[in-house]
Amino acid sequence: YVWPSQTLDALESARWDQNGHNAVGFAGFVVPCDLALQGFHSGRANVADWVRTAYHDMATHNVEDGTGGLDASIRFSEETSRAENPGDGFRNTLVEVTSIGIAHVSIADKLAVATILAIENCGGPEIPFRGGRVDAGGPNTPGVPEPQQDLQSHIASFARQGFTPTEMIGLVACGHTFGGVEHAPFPGISPEMDDPNNTLSVSHFDTTFAHFDNNVATEYMSGTTQNPLVVGSNDTTNSDKRIFASDGNVTMKSFADSPELFASTCSNLFARMLNTVPRGVQLTDVITPLPVKPSKLQLTMSGNTLKMSGEVRFWNMVADPQRTVFMLLDDHAGGTRNVTLPAAGVSTATGGRYNAAWYTLVPQSSTSLALDAAAGVTGMRFVVDGKLEDQGGVGFAVQDGVVFSDTSCYTSNQEPFKWRMDVAVRNGLNPTRVYLTQIGSTDSTGREIAIEVDVPPPAMPVAVNVNYSIWSIDMTDGNFYNIEAEVDGRKLIGNDVFGYGATGLKACPTST
Ligand code: HEM
């Protein structure tokens, strides 16, 4: 896709900005991979909780009527209180995954991308990610398989979810490379252990419970497995034993023989699991990393100066002090300014398989790039070691039509906050509407909802400089907002988020 796109930019960051500079934050919960909300040595691992949560959320899917699927319905207590969903893993997963605030990304997309990140950062294969999942407004029909059910019910259950008997063996083996069965919710399967290194008495499915590998298959084939759903003392609940042996061990043997086959099969099946969504939900194309991606772009009007800041990420690039990076900044007057960009940091993704180098758009030892308000800015291009990066000729468009004005100010800096948001609107733009969209507003079920606040047009134009006029609105909250406008029926999206907490918000001058 072409930058900028509000939704795709957010999904792309969630997917690829994993570790290091500007990391979105999911990986912080699963690196190192034995991190657990219950603590080290609990026997639990967040990575295992996340994978199981994604599966239990999806497993309500019905291919016939199109209901259920990965839609974050597992967040409803009606679902977590069902006998098919025992344990605290679902709640823990949702607390962690939803603590990462990313506007325009649904809870279900967060769960999907977090599951992918967890697997990739814990030894697993790369998994293609599509976005666009829609959060359910209520619980789905029950349908998660349970260990005491017989093989025929499990085959029927996976068929209802959209998986063949062979795919069932694969998906169970792929899932059960992580984690195990905990004593508290399953006392009949997992005995009390009194082990200081496994305080919650979790009987692990294989010897590497926080790491993706084919040990779940090699240990099963060699007969050394301690998988509690294979060698449990009560044969009724040995569901993995029945499932793994259901094709005469052909599939499990192929996994034990080839770690590569296991990894590629799991990549496919995990993607299928995560892409199983209610009928009518349209997923995006696979989100691949943009080779060059501006980020955190911010424009502020300050007198006659348009202050600009932000960063740019170059994918598949390691730090190199010899490298030269320039930004070519095009303006309304037809001019181009050449700015040398300092390095800002590096990031990695998928357990270190990819690197990215970040540069700041702000010149060395300044806090912002000062532009002449009259000339403004229309777009950016970059030159890296002499090579032009301009998205195949279209450039990286920057809108300077509606920007935050530093004449914004507060009259009360204690709750309830009282402040005035000033938006500088470029003369000649003639928007039919200027409005603010509230960031992070949710309904009673946690779903993101759009709240828009109209900024009234000024009764009398208030000039901020010869090129911009102020539109103002009095605010009484501490929320953050994005500035947007409608021009000729088109949506114009501002470049950054501002709210009461905007840096440098001043006290309003007191009138005497
Ligand atoms: C017939 C199908 C399945 C049955 C009967 C089953 C059963 C179980 C049981 C009883 C547990 C223990 C949960 C706990 O201690 O709280 C468990 C854990 C787990 N399951 Fe499954 N499972 C099935 C399929 C799957 C699939 C398809 C996946 C994912 C692809 C999966 C992923 C996991 C993971 C990651 C854990 C570990 C959770 C943790 O350690 O916190 N399971 N499963």
UniProtKB/TrEMBL annotation:
Statement: the UniProt record of this protein carries the keyword Ligase: no
GO BP annotation list: cellular response to oxidative stress; hydrogen peroxide catabolic process; response to reactive oxygen species
Stretches assigned to the Plant heme peroxidase family profile domain: 105-313
Single Gene Ontology MF annotation: metal ion binding
PROSITE patterns: PEROXIDASE_4
Keywords (A to Z) from UniProt: Heme, Iron, Metal-binding, Oxidoreductase, Peroxidase, Signal
Keyword RNA-binding listed: no
Annotated Pfam families: peroxidase
EC numbers, comma separated: 1.11.1.-
Source superkingdom: Eukaryota
Similarity field: Belongs to the peroxidase family. Cytochrome c peroxidase subfamily.
Role according to the record: Destroys radicals which are normally produced within the cells and which are toxic to biological systems.
Protein name according to UniProt: Peroxidase
Organism, as annotated: Mycena venus
